[in-house]
Amino acid sequence: MRYNIYSLLKCQLLYCAFSSWNLVLGQIRYSIPEELQLGAFVGNIAEDLGLDVKQLSTRSFRLVSGPRKQYVEINLDTGILFVKDKIDREEICGRSLSCVLSLGGLLENPLKLYKVTVEILDVNDNDPTFPKRQFHLQISERSKAGMRFPLESAHDLDIGNNSVQKYELLPNDYFVLDVRTGEGKMPVLVLKSSLDRETESSHSLTLIAKDGGIPVRSGTVEIIIIVKDTNDNAPVFFQKDYRVSLLETAPTGTQVIILNATDSDDGLNGEIRYSLGSHTSATAREKFGVDAKTGKIHVKGRLDYEESNTFELIIQAIDGGSDPMSGHCVVSVNIIDVNDNPPDVTLTSLSRTISEAAPVGSVVALFSAADKDSGRNGLVQCQISNKLPFRLDSSLENFYGILVHQALDRENVSSYDITITCTDAGNPFLTSEKTVRVDVSDINDNAPRFTQSLYTAHVKENNVIGASIFSITAFDPDIGLNAQLTYSILETQVMNSSVSTYFSVNSETGVIFAQRSFDYEKSKNFRIQAQVMDRGTPPLASNVSVNIIVLDENDNIPVIVQPLAQFGSAAVETISRFAEPGYLVAKVSATDADAGQNARVSYAIFQATLHNLFTISPDTGEIWTIRRITNNDASEQRLVIIAKDNGNPSLSATVTIILSVHGGDTATFSGVSGSFGGPTFTPDLGLSLVIVLGGISIIFLVILVILAAMVHRSRNIISSQHCSLRLCCCAETRHSLNRIQKASRNLQIPSNYVEVFGGDPLSQRFRYESCSTLQSTKGHVINPNICRSNTDRNCAQNEFVRKENARMINSENCSNTLKNKVRTLLNGE
User: How far apart, in whole angstroms, are the C-alpha atoms of residue 20 and residue 18?
Assistant: First the structure.
């Protein structure tokens, strides 16, 4: 039932008015009854202000209530203003005739301010009440008809027509009710006929107070009248109303006024005691007190102009008669304001984050500054530091705006502490400060940058597809999405193919991956263009070159190019059975497609028919005889030469060389197959070489001694040697052990030798030592000091060979066949 009444009142009283004014865009006024349910409809702000509902959210519409509690709220989706909290008019406005909630409706982008006023209408929700449950009156029986007895008024928290409107007294024989009007209605009991204490000593009356609400509410009090035959004169004040003024800073005990009432009676009936009447408010009782004997009113509690600037004291004077009578007066105390309140700064709107791209004039914050004091004490001026890129705008009534005054740069200053200083005009003036922090939000105004202007990466060939190669790194001084980087490889052509078929990059980490396995022998390096782009709007990017170098791996086995294999898998060479130790049998040459150490090839004898007959130079691949070939050695010698590169792990290739031994008696020799004995591995070559070298060194020393003795012998002794030895030259014979030393491979082939290739059908190569080992045609050793250059050495060597070969042709001990071979050799020279 109550809710229906509220709804009816709301429909009857709800109205809105819209008017424009110079500083605020508009105002709207609503009237609603108190005690509405939560969520009750107040009004449609969007419709009443002519706004699109969508603008309420997009432009951050909000209600600003200042320091007062906010009782209403707006639904941004519908634009409807509804009750947010319980509204009790008596709690909000007390006895004030007008109860208004002043709100500010704020729209941003651009900034617009609307005044919204909600008037709270009183509802008859309070019963009239009397200050006491019973009134006790003592009335002398001498009282004459028509005597008036004022009664304490009833109190109703409601106002207007809902407050106390009339009093009724239940019918009785002695009293009637009269209501005195003025500042308030006061019931007065009027005696209509004399009292007779002896007939009836007391009377009980019922007084009813009624308000004017719908429905009518009422309150009752019982009036107990004691009839006495005593004092018949009430105390009288000189004035019914007193007015005084007092500073709000008046300390406790300060005298306000001294009252003096008189009573015509004598004795106890004329003695007066003062007190605060029951109609004096509780607040006034806390602030002021009265001396019962002297009537002096003094300050009892702390005064505050901002809490209440006036007080009304009802002073009662009661005489001391047996039938006390009382008189009343009203003391109105006006509180004078003192500048004791600093300005109150209230933030209405604050953009805690503002873009660094915000244009000059953008609103950062909106605040109000008010002072509870009055007059000049309440005039307020505000300012902010002029060292900040902001300025203060005071063009809005009662509001200040903090606006952007200079361009912002987040990378330079990311946040500002803005101190608002407000000062009133009092004397002395009071100041308040409030600091707000504003963070500058980032925009994408910095392109990402790589840490290097050029990157160089290395990747081994035969890499695993999908393996990471390198990592590129970039940084962006922006933050958030503007600093989130994405890496990519720009599209180019690599060997007529898209670069994406060769490389890819992790878009988040910048790690570059190989999309295929690389071959150093085909491509040794690549140059690609990488790009980094941030996720800002619009995005910014930077490019960098990445030089990717392919590193060689040992993935190619040596290829033997000499000798060329014949008859399937074996190469055939011939050798004379009379070949001296150190004789160059053949040369193995191999190539490796790799690079560096992976292409460095070394040679070794892997398998041999006889392990002590041949040796090979690891560096050059030249195969030498270690000793003479005896009649017991097989006529065919099989050598398996291995060519190994220097990679890790090492790769190798082998070639089989079949050496056919010519000359001498071979009837007693078995075939190659008989002595080869199947594939076996050569013993430890290093240990064998050490043993061979040791033996050769001993033999060499012995030979040196013999040669020294032989040098002094005659030429005839030398020429008497076997003819075959002359074919190889005396110098060859005398220094054969030197050749063994060279062939045994810890021996490095000396640089001071020359090769003479003859026309021998056996394709033999004759080596002659340089000047240090050559002997003159007269049987004397050629002095090395005579050879001043390599040309001199070659001349001496060649001259010695010619003379020796010519002497063999003229020798009687050499066969015609050998002489013909020598002639052929000389002709080919």
Answer: 7
* Whether residue 206 sits in one domain with residue 298: no
Single-letter residue type at 17:
A
Domain boundary among 121, 146, 175: 121
> Is the Cβ–Cβ distance between 658 and 676 less than 8 Å?
no
Q: 574 and 662 in contact (C-beta within 8 Å)?
A: yes
With respect to residue 128, please indicate whether it lies within any of the assigned structural domains: no
List, for residues 197-233, the tens digit of each pLDDT value. 778 888 999 999 888 888 888 999 999 998 875 666 7
Before 558, cis peptide (omega within 30)? no
- Residue 761, in any domain of the structure: yes
Edge-to-edge strand order for the sheet containing 148-150? 148-150, 186-191, 175-180
Strand order in the sheet with 415-424: 353-355, 431-441, 415-424, 380-383
How deeply is 87 buried, as exposed, middle or buried, from its count of CB atoms within 10 A (0-12, 13-18, 19+)? buried
Tokens of 77: 């989706």
Q: Are residue 704 and residue 818 in the same domain, yes or no?
A: yes
Same domain flag for 704 and 821: yes
| Residue 254 to residues 80, 333, 619, Cα–Cα distance (Å) | 53, 13, 123
Per 3-state DSSP, the chain is made up of helix, strand and coil in percentages (nearest 5) of 20, 40, 45
Do 598 and 625 have their domain in common? yes
Predicted confidence (pLDDT) per residue in 341-373, tens digit: 898 888 888 888 898 889 998 999 999 888 888
One domain for residues 82 and 210? no
| pTM of the complete model | 0.41
The helix/strand/coil state of 299 is: strand
**Neighbouring C-beta atoms of residue 786, cutoff 10 Å:** 12
Dihedrals phi, psi of 631, to nearest 5 degrees = -70, -20
Question: What span, in angstroms and rounded, lies between the C-alpha atoms of 132 and 203?
Answer: 18
Token pair, residue 72, equals 């209403």
Q: How many other C-beta atoms lie within 10 A of the C-beta of residue 264?
A: 13
Tokens of residue 585, six digits = 């049998």
Tally of domains in the chain:
7
Domain boundary among 662, 682, 702: 682
Residues 678, 703, single domain; the answer is: no
Domain interval for residue 308: 236-336
Q: Would residue 127 count as lying in a domain?
A: no
* Residue 247, SS3 per DSSP: strand
Instruction: Put the strands of the sheet holding 26-33 in their side by side order.
Output: 26-33, 112-121, 100-107, 62-64
Distance CA 587, CA 577 (A): 18
Residues 394-422 pLDDT 10s: 887 778 999 999 999 988 898 999 999 99
Residues 117 and 207 in one domain: no
3-state secondary structure 578-593: CCCCCCEEEECEEECC
Nearest to 81 by CA among 123, 113, 121, 53: 53
CATH number at residue 563: 2.60.40.60
**How far is C-alpha 714 from the chain's CA centre?**
101
Q: Are residues 312 and 390 in the same domain?
A: no
- Read off the amino acid at residue 676: F
8 A C-beta contact, residue 185 and residue 201: no
Collapsing DSSP to helix, strand or coil, 72 comes out as strand
Give a yes or no: residue 183 inside a domain: yes
Contact 436, 350 (CB under 8 A): yes
User: How many residues are given for the chain?
Assistant: 829
Instruction: Check: CB of residue 482 under 8 Å from CB of residue 466.
Output: no
Kindly write down the DSSP assignment for every residue of 142-199, as one continuous string. TPPTT-EEE-PPPB-SS-GGGSEEEEEE---SSEEEEEE-SSS-EEEEEE-S---TTT
